[in-house]
Amino acid sequence: MPISEVMKFNPYDPQFQKDPYPVFERLRAREPLHKSIFQTWIVTSYAYADAILKDPRFLVDNLPARLEDKAENYHEASFLQLAQILESWLFFLNPPDHSRLRRAISSRFIQESIEGLRTYVESIVTDLLGCIAAGRPIDLMANLADPLVASTTTRLLGLPDHEADQISSWSINTIRIFDQPAPLEMLLEQSETMAQFRAYLEQLMAVIRHQPQPGLFSELLQQQPHSGLSDAEIISTLIVLAATAQESSKGLISNGLLALLHHPSSMSQLRENQALIPAAVNELIRYDSPIQYVTRRAAEDILFADQWIRQGEYAVVYLGAANRDPAAFPEPDRLDFQRTNRNLGFGGGVHYCVGSFLAKLEMEVVLKALLERFSGLELASDSLERSPTRLSRRLASLPVLVRP
Ligand code: HEM
Question: pTM (2 decimals)?
Answer without folding.
Answer: 0.95
